[in-house]
Design goal:
With about 260 residues, the chain is mainly α. The protein has a single domain, classed as GLE1-like (Serine Threonine Protein Phosphatase 5, Tetratricopeptide repeat, Alpha Horseshoe), CATH 1.25.40. It has helices at about 1-15, 35-60, 65-75, 80-90, 110-115, 125-145, 160-170, 180-220, 230-245; strands at about 20-25, 25-30, 120, 125. The chain is globular, with a radius of gyration of 20 Å.
């Protein structure tokens, strides 16, 4: 509910502003320790990324309430946004976007960690689980860049707005595609913020979508084996439908004005 989200936002904002906050039966304040504020900014940013790789990866719609709170906090407390990006880029290099290359002397285990895989006791997580986590983080990022906290000061610019999404898409299309990963990330990104980018960039955006269909999808196909076609097929269908309709649909779960009255 909108009212519940406002409660969460106010509590986080109060904590970061140095006000005493009630939690689990005790009162806490960042002023209780010289590094209190820095610690809270760090842990909060880390938690938002965890929401992306956990909650959002399983429930796509949850990207929007989480993103709108982070967007508002970022506006008032830029340090949280900076640390959030650092955590996000480390956990999901594709959010830069960047495909790390294996350097000489880097062990396979270390390289897999650089690619975003979780490695425990030399066991690498399964591909499906890895893709799900990356998908959740990209969806959260794509939601953040288009949302603003509705009760904030609208005078300033969004701290990390749609221009960053436009840049991400352009850089992504300049990279050589990877099997599995590239098709999934492009589809997630376009599903979540394609509509917002379409409204902002108009004809330039449609030129990019046309480029994806004509030039980039064939390049993804060239590196994709027959057993990895699922995501690529969904991306192809999505792009084709959007070009035919000349419209990118609104993402599922977007917060409407009526949500804030709940």
């Amino acid at each position: 509910a909108g009212s519940k989200l406002r409660e969460v936002f106010d509590k986080i904002n109060n904590l970061l502003s140095g006000k005493p906050v009630q939690t689990e039966g005790q009162t806490v304040s960042v002023t209780q320790h010289p590094q209190g504020l820095e610690f809270v900014c760090y842990k909060l940013a880390e938690k938002f990324v965890r929401h992306g790789e956990g909650e959002v990866s399983f429930h796509h719609d949850s990207a929007f309430p989480i993103a709108v709170v982070l967007s508002g906090i970022w506006e008032l407390h830029p340090r949280v946004g900076d640390i959030f990006l650092a955590h996000l880029h480390k956990k999901c290099p594709y959010s830069v976007p960047f495909y790390p290359a294996r350097k000489e002397g880097t062990s396979m285990e270390e390289y897999q960690r650089m690619l975003g895989y979780e490695v425990h006791d030399s066991k690498v997580e399964e591909q499906d689980h890895f893709l799900k986590r990356m998908s959740g983080m990209i969806r959260l990022y794509a939601a953040i860049i288009q949302l603003r906290w509705p009760y904030g000061n609208k005078q300033g610019a969004h701290p990390h707005g749609l221009s960053y999404g436009w840049r991400w898409l352009a850089q992504m299309l300049n990279l050589e595609p990877l099997a599995d990963v590239t098709a999934m990330l492009l589809l997630d990104f376009l599903e979540v913020c394609g509509n917002a980018l379409m409204k902002q960039y108009g004809i330039q955006f449609w030129k990019t979508v046309f480029f994806i269909q004509k030039s980039y999808i064939p390049r993804i196909e060239a590196v994709t084996s027959s057993g990895q076609m699922g995501c690529l097929s969904r991306l192809k269908n999505f792009v084709q439908k959007c070009l035919q309709a000349e419209e990118i649909p609104l993402p599922k779960g977007i917060l409407t004005p009526s949500f804030w009255r709940t």
